[in-house]
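Explain the record.
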Amino acid sequence: AKGLIIILVSALIGQGALITLMLGHPSWCYAASFVIWVMSGVVWLYAVVDSILCARRCPAEYQLKDYNRWHIYLVLILLTVPISAAWSLVVRESHVEAFYIPVNSMYPTVCRGDRVLADKRILRFESLQRGDLIVFINPNDRGQRWIKRVAGLPGDAIEIRGGEVSVNGERLERRKAEITAVREGAEIPGGEIVWEKNGQAEHMIFLADTEEADAPEIMDFEKLTVPPGHCFVLGDNRNRSKDSRHVGAIPLVDIVGRVDYRYYPSVARLR
């Protein structure tokens, strides 16, 4: 009877986790999911401890049943592995996916070696906004995933002159950021970090020095009206990023998810 109760409670917790991930709004889904998984861990920890205590209370003359064999328990454990793997696959493919950042094209927001979480459900609840940090499929190599920031939405007119970005004829405001430290391992050359405001969003970008020997050429970009069903993206490391200036506007259907959190090397909310 106790075992059946534990199984029932675990099943209810599992269903709650699934419903939360499928229907829950991302603003509170992470916290709710964490509470659910803690509850599940408590239930299973109770089951393990109670099993040990029950075994110790058994009389010495207790006769093992047919199912009280180590190989039976091993089979039961192995049967749960495919279920856990299938659950992980569902979460990864439909809800949230972790990504490793191999380059510094998005410095100072994320650096090479960082790991971020992309929420794949966010666009079901909220419309895409300028300033959103997104993961999308590289148009030139669909096996790659890129992370960039949305600078223009469908219908927006984008133009870049002398490194200054204009959206719908208005140059984006910039102000100096009081940040000089470079995160360890970033390997960023000299330059300046500034705040750039695009609509309601404000975020930091990095402007690399143009006087260094290996400094990239600052690209001008002729005015482009973002086609319907597309967005225009730029890297925060503005002078050292391949983005829509090189590959064109990105189809909205190729967006994998919006990045709201960095979980390594430290936990940080990026919006």
